[in-house]
Amino acid sequence: MQNYAPNYESPHYQLYITAVQANAKVTVKVPPLNFKQEKTLNAGERVTISLPTGVEMYGSKRSPNTVRIEASADVSVTSFNSKQYTADTSVVYPTTEWGTEYFIFTPASSSYGSYKEFSVTNGKESNKLEIFPRCTIRFEGRVYSGGSRMVIDLQPYESAQLQSVYELSGTRVASQHPVAVVTGHTCTWHFAKCNHVYEQLLPVSGWGSSFIVPPLTFQSKFDSVFLQASQPTQATVHHGNNKKVFTLVRGQIVEINSSNPEALSIQADHGIQVLMLFNGVTRSWLHYYDPFLMAILSNDRFCSSYSLEALEGFENKA
């Protein structure tokens, strides 16, 4: 997706791929850009793939330059979108985790000239999207008002990016065949400088009903946790000795402040989507931790083995 402004300084688009099993052959390709790399990895080995600049999408339109990743054995994949002073990462889910219904969340705070945005990526079959925008969206020269119905046809391995200066949270995306949806903001800010944030979403079918959200120890103020429903839902949130009960309707979002030292415990009577926005920290006049966005997985997705991806040139914390 679009990171900050077009043609901004020092763009880097990378994939970090780690093998879970030995002798994993990995292929990364972008056929319209004549890009292809192949690597064979041992168990626990990581490779960094630098992508061509043509993979970044600008504006509200379609793009054929979808990155295709194939592996002969299980791998974990993290994407990295970086320009000078603005960067974020996201886990990349396998196509088996894709779905046909999503609800969009985008951060509200914007700097001048920035956009709320999301993208939809298609797989190997021609596909039809139905998008029900919350507010006005301009796409390929046409303006769609809030409450309208957009229909977008996607060719195999084609992507569409949609941007707006207005509120996109609550927008519903439905498709004939499974798709991937990534959401974010070209440059959002709160307690620090503005930063590009993005995250791949899970479809409604992958939502859960029980969550734990630990606080970030380096946050001196608060971060924001967002709950979103796909149907009438009651959610109960415990934060220390405090308890709040929320009643949500379809697409509705509630924001909860998360601060040290207590974790949030969330229970819902139907599946919900939970995301956390790190609001940034100002350490000193020239020392900032900029915002990032991450999806919170439900407790039933916990497992006993993890791979941590550290980034060169950054302070890495776990």
UniProtKB/TrEMBL annotation:
Annotated ranges, domain IgGFc-binding protein N-terminal? 88-316
**Which InterPro entries does its entry note?**
IgGFc-bd_N (IPR035234)
Q: Mind telling me which Pfam families this protein's record contains?
A: IgGFc_binding (PF17517)
The protein here is known as IgGFc-binding protein
Q: Which organism is it from?
A: Dissostichus eleginoides
